[in-house]
Design goal:
By secondary structure, this protein is α/β, with parallel strands linked by helices. The chain has helices spanning about 35, 60-70, 85-100, 110-115; strands at about 5-10, 25-30, 50, 75-80. The chain is about 25% helix and about 20% strand.
């Protein structure tokens, strides 16, 4: 049973209530009740991201993991971003992770390589993070 869970996912534009420009990188968060009760300094994503707009839908594995964490009363945040796999989104997420989740972690990879973490058999990440 993890202490906390952070899920990174991308937005499906058909599920978003509003317009998404492919020119601007945006990210939103959804949190479990256990995470919402935390103080600002203790939150996984802090107050840097806006909450996902009401009336919009998130589906897929990320939403299922967040729902499971809610049922098990585990601290969890889901960060959804747009556009999918864009370098501006990777930079935004790297900045968030570097400030909040993994302070002091040296990414040292190019933006293209960051997208491959967790997908390649050659890379092994020893961490308490579940990717």
């Amino acid at each position: 049973r993890p202490y906390s869970v952070l899920v990174l996912d991308s937005l499906d534009p058909t599920n978003f209530r509003g317009k998404l420009s492919s020119d601007d990188a945006v990210a939103f968060k959804l949190e479990t009740s256990a995470e919402m009760k935390r103080a600002h300094d203790e939150k996984l994503l802090g107050e840097e991201l806006d909450y996902y707009p009401s009336g919009s839908v998130v589906d897929g594995l990320g939403a299922a993991i967040l729902a499971r964490c809610q049922l098990m009363n585990i601290r969890a945040s889901l960060c959804v971003s747009w556009p999918r796999f864009d370098k501006s989104v990777v930079a935004l997420i790297k900045g968030l992770l570097g400030r909040r989740v993994l302070p002091g972690f040296e990414f040292g990879l190019s933006d293209d390589e960051v997208l491959k973490i967790g997908r390649s058999r050659d890379r092994v990440v020893h961490s308490e993070l579940y990717i």
